Automatic annotation (TrEMBL):
Gene3D superfamilies: PGBD-like superfamily/PGBD. Residues 1-21 are annotated as: Disordered. Residues 11-21 have a biased composition (Basic and acidic residues). Residues 52-102 form the Peptidoglycan binding-like domain. This is Peptidoglycan-binding protein. It holds the Pfam family PG_binding_1.
């Protein structure tokens, strides 16, 4: 039996429904009218509802990262341009009635349909879509995924503490809609044994998909081995390993914060154990593999549009994937 909703929950749902209706109405007004709306006008308070409507449709179609925020910046503009060109519609820096109509009519299956099989990349995408996670579909866009407790082939493995038994992956959707893995390297999403001394427990990144990393320099607590990495920029959800088990347990403390330094970096010298290399960061064992990872993410069109781009990352337990 479903739990009874509180008055506050009902009010929040009603407000969201009203917002969705207002956004759809604003987009329909452009689609049925004769006037174009420039993208510069979309990035203003006066056009906030319309900007959010366009963003919501671009997100649903796999062209733009969540979330809807009304800030129609470089990546929202690029996503709109890519959508228009894919539809063979003229684009000159404006939302036209024809583009607005196409945004309303297209669905993910009709716009950029996926061709999913039984391979590992397809299994990951199936899982992410079932969990309502974002999978980038445009050409050249990458999706960052970590598989916890996994072999290279995606077979679930024992998630032993202090071992390199996770995978860092980059996925893309190839022409024809087939998902492909363009990088698959050994990593850890969990802290090493030498980090157990923290009284309140070392950080573990929460399972799920989060947005909060930019290209920068990882230095670590000691300041040794500085190197290019994806560094935390924004609020991320973690759990504190309160009982020092090396895993996420029911008694662990869940936190969300912006200053925890949960970076995506690398170890050096291919260490046999995680040890001191992770105090909660997402760490690749091999530095050369990490450098390839950085080269690839910097080729992503969203990063090229703005170097302040915040990357999304999904952390998935391999045992959760569809068989």
């Amino acid at each position: 039996m479903a739990p009874t909703k509180t008055a506050a929950q009902k009010a929040a749902e009603e407000k969201k429904a009203e917002e969705r209706a207002a956004r759809k109405k604003a987009l329909e007004a452009v689609a049925t009218g004769n006037a174009d709306v420039s993208v510069k006008a979309l990035d203003t308070k006066a056009r906030d509802t319309l900007a959010r409507a366009v963003q919501a449709r671009l997100i649903a179609l796999g062209c733009l990262d969540p979330k809807v925020d009304g800030e129609f910046g470089p990546n929202s503009q690029r996503a709109l341009m890519a959508f228009a060109r894919h539809q063979h519609l003229p684009y000159d820096g404006a939302l036209t009635p024809k583009i607005a109509h196409a945004l309303l009519e297209e669905t993910p299956d009709s716009f950029l349909p996926l061709t999913l099989g039984k391979d590992l990349a397809s299994r990951i995408v199936k899982y992410m879509l079932a969990q309502k996670q974002f999978v980038a579909r445009l050409d050249g866009y990458l999706t960052i995924v970590y598989l916890e407790g996994s072999t290279k082939a995606g077979v679930p493995a024992r998630n032993v503490f202090d071992q390199w038994n996770d995978r860092r992956m980059l996925l893309r959707i190839a022409p024809g809609g087939k998902p492909e893995i363009v990088l698959n390297i050994l990593a850890t999403t969990e802290p090493g044994r030498l980090q157990k001394e923290r009284a309140d427990g070392t950080a573990h990144i929460a399972l799920g998909q989060q947005k909060g990393w930019v290209v920068g320099t990882h230095t670590g607590a000691s300041g040794n081995n500085p190197h290019e990495a994806l560094i935390q920029r924004g609020r991320l959800a973690i759990v504190r390993d309160k009982n020092h088990s090396g895993h996420r347990d029911k008694g662990d403390t869940a936190l969300t914060g912006s200053g925890m330094g949960i970076n995506q970096h690398s170890a050096f010298r291919d260490p046999s154990h995680v040890g001191e290399w992770s105090a909660g960061c997402l760490v690749a064992q091999d530095h050369e593999g990490h450098k390839k990872f950085m080269r690839l993410v910097k080729k992503d069109p969203r990063y090229k549009a703005t170097h302040d781009y915040r990357f999304m990352t999904a952390v998935i337990a391999a045992k959760s994937l569809p068989k």
